[in-house]
Amino acid sequence: MAADISPQDVRRGLARHEVPDPLRNDVRLLGGLLGTVLREAGGDDLLADVERLRELTIRAHDESETDALELAEDLVESFSEHRAEQVARAFTCYFHLANLAEEYHRIRMLRERESVLAPHELAPDDSLPSAVVELAKEIGQDAALERLRNLEFRPVVTAHPTEARRRSVANSIRRISDLVAERDGMTAGGISLAENERRLLAEIDVLWRTSPLRASKPTVLDEIHSVMAVFDSTFFDVFPSVYRRLDDWLQGEHAGAREPIVRPFVRLGSWIGGDRDGNPNVTSEVTRAAAVIASEHILTALESAARRTAHVLTLDGVGTPPSAELLALWQRQREFSEVVTARATEGAPGQPHRRALIVIAERIAATRLRDADLAYTGADQLEADLAVVQRSLVEAGAARAAYGDLQRLIWQVQTFGFHLAELEIRQHSQVHEAALADIAEHGIDGPLQPRTQEVLDTFRAISAVQRRHGVEAARRYIVSFTQRPEHLAAVYELASLVFPDPSQAPVIDAVPLFETFADLQASVDILDAMLELPIVQQRLAANGRRVEVMLGYSDSSKDVGPVSATLALDVAQSRIADWAHRHHITLTLFHGRGGALGRGGGPANRALLAQPPGSVDGRFKLTEQGEVIFARYGDPVIASRHIEQVAAATLLAGAPSVEQRNAASTARFAPLAELLDRTSRDRFYSLVRAEGFPQWFAEVTPLEEIGLLPLGSRPARRGLSVESLDDLRAIPWVFSWSQARTNLAGWFGLGTALDAVGDLDELRAAYAGWPLFTTVIDNVEMSLAKTDRRIASRYLALGERQDLADLVLEEMALTRRWVLAITGSDEVLSRRRVLGRAVQLRSPYVDALSLLQLRALKRLRSGVEPDEVEGLRQLLLLSVNGVAAGLQNTG
């Protein structure tokens, strides 16, 4: 936070991870301005305390044999309660500034790269054009284009108690980021640069003075509005921009002058307002409101886009005459409203295409306002009208007008419809069982339990959403902890009880969610039994034999450990893909991945290319959770790249060479997989099944205190005590270990498993030739980079169980040793320059926040006077927020 990067910074990491000058300059500028703000707000003493702690943690990180860490602890202990909170907030602000500087540098580098490389010259898993070229080499151009036409990428946004950053803080960060970007086009020494710096200082002052903690937990509707902000800023424009970029490359010199080759392949889903598993705040009324909010946003956006498109479509009717079809559309529009068409004629005299589009915009507005006389009944009607205008332009020779902004609008209608995102319902199988038992005892009209009534009202809400916004607005019903085929049958049975007349019932596709290790193993047997359900047979006949199966990464990892969970998921995907092939089913596997490595996190494109043969087949669906939504989609440039990467990998996953490589490596390393599975699971069980482990876990991590954080609308638990981990959500399980600088959920058990193999040559062969194993090792390396043995040991000592603490630290050291040996590295991430630089530069600053958190935890654990508890919890929650920002991943 000083005005320059210190010599210690250089010694610590820059020799190995050189910082590019533009990034260095941005960090130096922002850090210096933050120092000015701290001095103005808290005086020289505050800045001095922050600097002293920073210097000590840097020394401790660089020179591990010194007593610098103990001196840093002593300094933290000497702070008053108020000063400790100020220092925690200062380091958190620094992380926000460093993060935005790095994010903008990524954008800067992406733009520079694209200015010198053609799209097809990028890596195949980094660019859609390059992926098409690569695929065409193997299966031919026509077959590659056919697969492109059938491509599906379905991100599903979810709200989880992991987004530690307030929306007001996120907005402040975005404004600062915009000002940093603005500087790239300015000349040094100019007045505009000085003005920019003044505004930066003002915005950083606002960031410092904005409380990083919410005063209360956000409601589900708050979470919906947060995601709507991302739709407004990126989704609506980025999706068609990705289509356009690919289509322009495919069309070559005919770009924008011929009918597009690319069909929209992104379909957005949402659990926010639909996921009621363990969240009593998601009610039937909330589900209806969520659908209305989303619909209002998309209709508002489509109306604005239609008006903008009409504004520039000023082609006169003499040079660009209307087709007979357009004239017929105009006549129908006049029948809808003489007043509206008269206004359109007055506003666009002699411009038949423009006036038709003006009326189309008015009809979109009427749809939003629910004006039945003028409203569209569905997005297909709007698309049909736009197609008439487009064909008329083509017929008149104005192909570039037809396939320019108008095509972009058509893509947006095709992508978002009138519902924006499909609202998916999720509920726990046991809730359905309890509801059916209640109804069996009291009858559908009897005195039912409130929870049963809410289950029934959920189906009424689905019906209402479909009637108002279309079937695609809410069709999928996900059953958590699907362990028997009866759990899927229950969904259809409950729907039939609410709607005895099938013609009145909503369209529902029950989606099994296999989460635990046992459920993954039983998945195919359950799916076989599911096919025997008459209602499922009816749905298969109606939907072209399409089935979706969801896989849970979180609970399986908490159940058997990260290594066994990864292997079990791989086997399950292979078996489910074979099952789908046998039954002539078009399968979509839905991956319930979180942002953290213990929950399936890591680069999605690399994970895709390691999937079993046939399990992707051009379709990829995953959850985008918590802070991941803003990290991947908050900026248009980064969002475009993420979509391209995932879509490219989805295409390439079905390439014969990739499928053959994955099949061969799975067979080749099957004995190794079996040994890794068995030994890692045994090691994991030795920890989590040890007597007293749940209580110890709650003592050595801020688990209890995380439950107090007003992060999300969902409770952290399904109503349990710390006597059991069975019902603890995987999100706080992962979050707690990351806060304790242990990241145990991402690696525990791997070191013992690798040691049991013992053959370094074989393990290196697996790392080189088995993509699944490569992904595991690389992700564990990333996870280990965010651990710190010295800090972790201080957390683990809080539980007064040295046996368990030693077990964790021994496994950490063993895992690190084997990972470095397999990768041939001296330090973790030494081969990954950008990521390694980010982690190395942040670690000492995270250490400072961890010491502040430990101060609060120690005092809370040792017992303090009641009047001290609130202040200690405030410090702890501030540090939780800061560590999350510093590590750049939560749950």
How does this model look, in words?
With about 900 residues, the protein is mainly alpha-helical. Among the domains are: about 5-120 and about 165-215, no CATH class; about 665-885, no CATH class. A nine-stranded parallel sheet has the order 3-2-1-9-8-7-6-5-4. Strand 8 (about 585-590), helix 24 (about 605-610) and strand 9 form a beta-alpha-beta unit. It is globular and about 85 Å long. The two termini are about 30 Å apart. Residues about 1-15, about 595-600 and about 715-720 have low confidence and may be disordered.
Helix content: 55-70%
Task: Let me know the average pLDDT.
Answer: 90
| Spatial strand arrangement across the major sheet | 3-2-1-9-8-7-6-5-4
User: What's the N-to-C terminus distance?
Assistant: 28 Å
* Assembly annotation: single chain
Q: List low-pLDDT spans.
A: 2-17, 596-601, 716-721
Radius of gyration: 28 Å
- Strand content is 5-15%
Envelope shape: globular
Instruction: Determine the number of helices (DSSP H or I, runs of at least 4 residues).
Output: 38
Largest sheet: 9 strands, parallel
Structural class, from secondary structure content? mainly alpha
Question: Could you tell me the number of beta strands?
Answer: 9
Give a topology summary.
Layout: H1 7-14, H2 21-62, H3 68-78, H4 81-116, H5 128-139, H6 141-149, E1 152-158, H7 167-183, H8 191-209, H9 220-251, E2 269-270, H10 284-312, H11 324-336, H12 338-347, H13 352-369, H14 379-395, H15 399-402, H16 405-416, E3 422-423, E4 425-428, H17 429-442, H18 450-469, E5 476-480, H19 485-498, E6 509-514, H20 517-531, H21 534-543, E7 546-552, H22 554-560, H23 562-582, E8 586-592, H24 604-608, E9 619-625, H25 627-633, H26 636-652, H27 656-668, H28 670-688, H29 693-700, H30 703-706, H31 730-739, H32 750-757, H33 760-769, H34 771-785, H35 789-796, H36 802-823, H37 833-862, H38 866-887
Parallel strand pairs: 1-2, 1-9, 2-3, 4-5, 5-6, 6-7, 7-8, 8-9
Helix pairs in contact: 1-2, 2-3, 2-4, 2-8, 2-37, 3-37, 4-7, 4-37, 4-38, 5-6, 5-26, 7-8, 9-10, 9-16, 9-26, 10-13, 10-16, 10-18, 11-12, 11-13, 11-14, 12-13, 13-14, 14-16, 17-18, 17-19, 18-19, 19-20, 20-23, 22-23, 23-28, 28-32, 32-36, 33-34, 34-36, 35-36, 37-38
